[in-house]
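Hi all, posting the design record for the shared folder.

TITLE: backbone redesign
STEP: 1 of 1
STRUCTURE INPUT:
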C-alpha cells in the first residue's frame, strides 16, 4: 500500500497551505494506554502540530488526541509529546534537510494502516504571503474549469 493510504482519521490542511511540501515520510507513532481507542474514533486534531528532532529521535508535538470517554484513570494527556518511529536513514535525511534554512517537519495526516496508527510527515519550506495567494488563485481556476466541464457534459 502506498504512503498515505488507509483510513484517514485526521488531516492538516493548513500545512499544505503554509508550506511547499517537498518530500513525505510515513512514521509509526508510540501511543499510551487508551490513545489508540480515541484515534480509532477519529478524535484527533493535527491543526497546530509540528515535529521536532532531538537526540536522533523525532517527536510529534501539539497533536491533540482527545481522552477516551470510557478510559477513567487510564487516560492520557491530550497534548503530550509523542515519539515517531522512523528508520535511522530517514531520521538522518530529516536532520540534513531541516538544517537548511526555512525547512521544517510538518505532520500532514494521521491514518490507520493494517491496524496501526501512522502519521504522514513532510519536509516543508515556508510559503510567503504572495505564494499562498497564488495557490488559492490556481485552486479557484481549477474549480472553474471543472465546473465548466461538468456543465458542458449535461
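Okay, here is what came back for every position:
SEQUENCE:
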Amino acid at each position: 500500500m502506498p504512503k498515505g493510504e488507509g483510513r484517514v482519521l485526521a488531516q492538516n490542511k493548513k500545512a499544505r497551505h503554509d508550506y511547499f511540501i517537498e518530500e513525505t515520510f510515513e512514521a509509526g507513532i508510540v501511543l499510551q494506554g487508551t490513545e489508540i481507542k480515541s484515534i480509532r474514533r477519529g478524535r484527533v486534531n493535527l491543526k497546530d502540530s509540528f515535529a521536532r528532532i532531538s537526540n536522533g529521535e523525532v517527536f510529534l508535538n501539539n497533536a491533540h488526541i482527545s481522552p477516551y470517554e470510557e478510559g477513567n484513570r487510564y487516560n492520557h494527556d491530550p497534548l503530550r509529546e509523542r515519539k515517531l518511529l522512523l528508520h535511522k536513514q530517514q531520521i538522518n535525511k530529516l536532520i540534513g534537510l531541516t538544517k537548511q534554512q526555512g525547512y521544517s517537519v510538518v505532520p500532514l495526516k494521521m491514518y490507520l494502516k493494517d491496524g496501526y496508527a501512522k502519521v504522514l510527515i513532510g519536509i516543508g519550506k515556508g510559503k510567503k504571503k504572495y505564494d499562498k495567494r497564488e495557490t488559492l488563485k490556481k485552486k479557484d481556476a481549477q474549480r472553474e474549469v471543472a465546473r465548466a466541464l461538468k456543465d458542458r457534459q449535461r
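COMMENT: The first strand starts at residue 7 and ends at 11.
Let me know if anyone wants the other runs.
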